[in-house]
Every structure is written in structure tokens, then in C-alpha cells.
Amino acid sequence: MDKKTKKKQKGTVKEALRIQSEWLYLSEREGILRCFYEYLRESGREAQLWEEAGVLELSLAEDSSMDMEVLEKDQWDDELCLFAKQRTVNKIYTISFPEKDQKAAYALMEELAGKAGGSFCKDTEDFLPEIKGG
Question: What is the pLDDT of residues 40-95, one digit of tens each?
């Protein structure tokens, strides 16, 4: 393999590590970022909360995290407004995490949905797949 090919492969690997998976979290509850933050801290896991900014960073692995941020209603598109109305939710958060940590992120989303209700759904046209809380 020549130097050019090695360099190209190395760049592709770095790009793959940066690919983000985009999800949404829908909830009827107020103060969900604080709820998740306290739950994670009580269970001994790392999280950082910037309440005034509406941002929560949840640790997934030693070198990666899942970011959760309030999505203001004026940023909801028509499809999201309809989906929220059908679900009777008034709070939506954007979720992003490295694609490479998908397994850990899914497990964390399942755990959080089980703890607080609401649902996580992929930010796609049909909002699937979905992880629902109880």
C-alpha cells in the first residue's frame, strides 16, 4: 500500500468516528434534564448539566458522550408539530451521539425512558425506530 492510500484510509476512519446519530426525546414532563442529571449522578455515572442553556451531556464511554438539548417550539417543523400533538407532548429535546457508540446510547435511552417515561425516536421522516418509556 502506498502512502497516499494509507493516508486516505486513516482519514476515512477518523471521519467514521465523527459521524453523529441524531435522535429526539419527547416528554410531557417539565425539568427532565435535571431529572436525568440527578438520576445519573445518583447511579454513579458522569453527566454535566447547563440548565440555563438547556443542555445535558451524558457520558457514554471514556471518550464520548450523548448530548441532549432543548429544541424550542419555534424550531419544530410541521411534521414534528403534528407528531408532538399526536403524542400530547410539549417538550422535545435533540439527542446526538457518535454512531460508533450506538449500542451504549440505545441502552442509556432505554434506561432513561424506563425511568422517566416519554420516548426517544430517531430524527427521521417517520420517527423510527422508537424507544418508549413505561
Answer: 999 999 999 999 999 999 999 888 999 999 999 999 999 999 999 998 898 999 99
The torsion defined by the Cα of 55, 39, 106 and 24, in degrees rounded to 10, comes to: -40
Give Cα 36 distance to the centre of its chain: 12
pLDDT level of residue 17 (50, 70, 90 thresholds): low
Grid cell in block for residue 21: 446519530
**The three grid cell numbers given for residue 22, joined into one nine-digit string:** 441524531
Report residue 12: phi and psi, to 5°. -65, -40
Please state, in angstroms and rounded to a whole number, the distance separating the CA atoms of residues 101 and 120.
16
- Which is nearest to 109 in space by CA: 18, 118, 100? 118
What's the distance, CA 39 to chain centroid?
Answer: 16
Where helices occur in 1-134 by DSSP H, the ranges are 3-18, 32-42, 78-87, 102-116
**pTM confidence score:** 0.84
DSSP state of 1: -
Give DSSP secondary structure letters for 60-72. Answer: EETTEEEEEEE--
Name residue 94's beta-bridge partners. 24, 69
